[in-house]
Design brief:
five-stranded antiparallel β-sheet, 26% helix, 3 helices, nucleus, Mediator of RNA polymerase II transcription subunit 13, repressor, alpha+beta, globular, Mediator_complx_sub13
């Protein structure tokens, strides 16, 4: 039986494609004063995810446990190289402990995982726009 897969077992030539010294990232969660409707089509994280994806910004979202560990919440991660990322988004609050740049601090495992997911999202978006069909996840 094989061991579980993690990013440490993945290899890529991403680092040869671009100098990552100028990479920046930001993480956002739903604003504390925003009342979340049962209808997830009005979820501010998902709305902003689709908005930034349309602008070809590297982005990904995920579910995380809240600070009290009782509920889950969504996070939106944005990545950029040689560009400024927005400091605020409508109905979202920045998570200051999950913001940074490559030159300031190395990528944490969470940040690398979200970058990998954002790259996957961008590749998938491009392939779908060229007529490729999605077979599965």
């Amino acid at each position: 039986m094989s061991a579980p897969c993690s990013l440490e077992h993945c290899h890529t030539n991403l680092f040869a494609l671009q100098s990552l010294n100028d990479m920046k990232w930001k993480c956002f969660r739903r604003a504390l004063n925003y009342r979340l409707e049962p209808n997830h089509y009005k979820d501010p994280v998902l709305i902003q995810y689709w908005n930034v994806l349309r602008t070809d910004t590297l982005c990904a979202w995920r579910r995380v446990l809240t600070d009290d560990g009782q509920k889950t919440e969504k996070e939106l991660w944005l990545f950029g190289i040689n560009e400024d990322l927005p400091s605020e988004l409508p109905n979202l609050r920045p998570m200051h402990q999950a913001n940074g740049s490559w030159s300031e601090n190395a990528l944490s495992y969470d940040c690398r995982s979200m970058l990998f997911k954002a790259l996957h999202n961008m590749i998938e978006k491009y392939l779908l726009s060229k007529g490729f069909a999605r077979l599965n996840k």
